[in-house]
Amino acid sequence: MRASQFHLFTLKEAPSDAEVVSQKLMLRAGMIRKAAAGIYSYMPLGLRSIRKVETIIREEMDRAGAMELTMPLVQPAELWQETGRWDTMGPEMLRLQDRHDRDFALQPTSEEVVTDIARQEIKSYRQLPKNFYQIQTKFRDERRPRFGVMRGREFTMKDAYSFDRSKEAAGHSYALMFATYTRIFDRIGLDYRAVAADTGAIGGDRSHEFQVIADTGEDAIVYCPDSDYAANIELAEAVSLLEHRAEPGQALEKTPTPGSATCADVAALLQVPLATTVKSLVLATDDVDAKGEPAGVTLWLLLVRGDHSLNEIKTSKLDGLKTGFRFATEAEIDEHFGCKPGYLGPIGLQKPVKLIADRTVAHMSDFICGANDADFHFTGVNWGRDLPEPDVVADIRNVVEGNPSPDGKGTLAIQRGIEVGHVFYLGDKYSKVMNATFLDEDGKPKHFEMGCYGIGVTRILGAAIEQNHDARGIIWPTAIAPFEVVICPVGWGKSQAVRDEAQKLYEALRAQGVDVILDDRDERPGVMFADWELIGVPHRVTIGERGLKEGVVEYQGRREAEVSKLALDTIAAHLLGALGQA
Amino acid sequence: MRASQFHLFTLKEAPSDAEVVSQKLMLRAGMIRKAAAGIYSYMPLGLRSIRKVETIIREEMDRAGAMELTMPLVQPAELWQETGRWDTMGPEMLRLQDRHDRDFALQPTSEEVVTDIARQEIKSYRQLPKNFYQIQTKFRDERRPRFGVMRGREFTMKDAYSFDRSKEAAGHSYALMFATYTRIFDRIGLDYRAVAADTGAIGGDRSHEFQVIADTGEDAIVYCPDSDYAANIELAEAVSLLEHRAEPGQALEKTPTPGSATCADVAALLQVPLATTVKSLVLATDDVDAKGEPAGVTLWLLLVRGDHSLNEIKTSKLDGLKTGFRFATEAEIDEHFGCKPGYLGPIGLQKPVKLIADRTVAHMSDFICGANDADFHFTGVNWGRDLPEPDVVADIRNVVEGNPSPDGKGTLAIQRGIEVGHVFYLGDKYSKVMNATFLDEDGKPKHFEMGCYGIGVTRILGAAIEQNHDARGIIWPTAIAPFEVVICPVGWGKSQAVRDEAQKLYEALRAQGVDVILDDRDERPGVMFADWELIGVPHRVTIGERGLKEGVVEYQGRREAEVSKLALDTIAAHLLGALGQA
Question: How many CA atoms lie within 13 A of B95 on its CB side?
Answer without folding.
Answer: 14
